[in-house]
Amino acid sequence: EVIVEVRNLKKHFEMSNGFLKKTKTTVRAVDGLNFKVYEGETLGIVGESGCGKSTTGQLLLGLMEATEGEIYFRSTDLASMNKEALRKARKDLQVIFQDPYSSLNPRMTVGELIGEPLVVHGIMRGKALRERVIELMQLVGLREHQYDRFPHEFSGGQRQRIGIARALALNPKVIVCDEAVSALDVSIQAQILNLLNRLQKELDLTYVFIAHGLPAVRHISDRIGVMYLGKMVELAGRDELFNNPLHPY
Ligand code: ADP
Ligand code: ADP
């Protein structure tokens, strides 16, 4: 079953040239994407730096308005949703970033960081919130006694677990993993990928897994899309892609 579908998606940025700003250049970050994401799968998206992967992720999350084209979440175009529907869809669409350290507020404790989405959406507070946060911590391999610690006290891999727990707080359906393991040591990458695999099965998650390098994507993806200059130049099953001897990847 298709959970997300992208049709003719474009995102162009107008850039002023120089301080006089007399001329403009258009950066075609995303330039006509078409693909489907099936429920429960991991769709890997790879491509060199600047090819439009992060912009695609932002668009999928409903965090950025497309220049052209549509993004359907469960058959409804994000752009056609009213505020309430979009707010709901955004709960179902969550993200894990490359470096949770730079995306996590250093003044908040682990417990506060993981519970924040639940507080912001007015879903839980007090004792129920604490219990839910501890449940989320255990789900990702963190311990209850770490609740009041700060992110800087953790290793990169542990911090990524915090980021994952936070992304899971609202029971999402789709998680965009944007270079989620790229900054980690290889052995830690494997741990986090195994965790993501386990969570996918336990929680029926769908992943869009963005990475510039192939090893991580190969490990986790069912299908892989290759982006180049804002376009998807290839989209195939993992084995099909990797077993083709003519393939440059
Ligand atoms: P990737 O994630 O594959 O490295 P990005 O999606 O970050 O690629 O960027 C694609 C292209 O769009 C790059 O040329 C980048 O500089 C440009 N770009 C991304 N975001 C913006 C922005 N907010 N304003 C202007 N240009 C942008
Ligand atoms: P990535 O490492 O994923 O390729 P970047 O480090 O290129 O991402 O970009 C980080 C952030 O800056 C992204 O949110 C992207 O949209 C934005 N960005 C990238 N290029 C530009 C640009 N030329 N002008 C403004 N913002 C940009």
UniProtKB/TrEMBL annotation:
A Gene Ontology molecular function term of the record: ATP hydrolysis activity
Domain ABC transporter positions: 4-249
Keywords: ATP-binding, Nucleotide-binding, Transport
Recorded coiled-coil stretches: none
Segment of the intact protein contained: 8 to 256 of 339
First and last residue of the signal peptide: none
Gene Ontology biological process: peptide transport; transmembrane transport
Similarity field: Belongs to the ABC transporter superfamily.
Segments traversing the membrane: none
Annotated protein name in UniProt: Peptide/nickel transport system ATP-binding protein
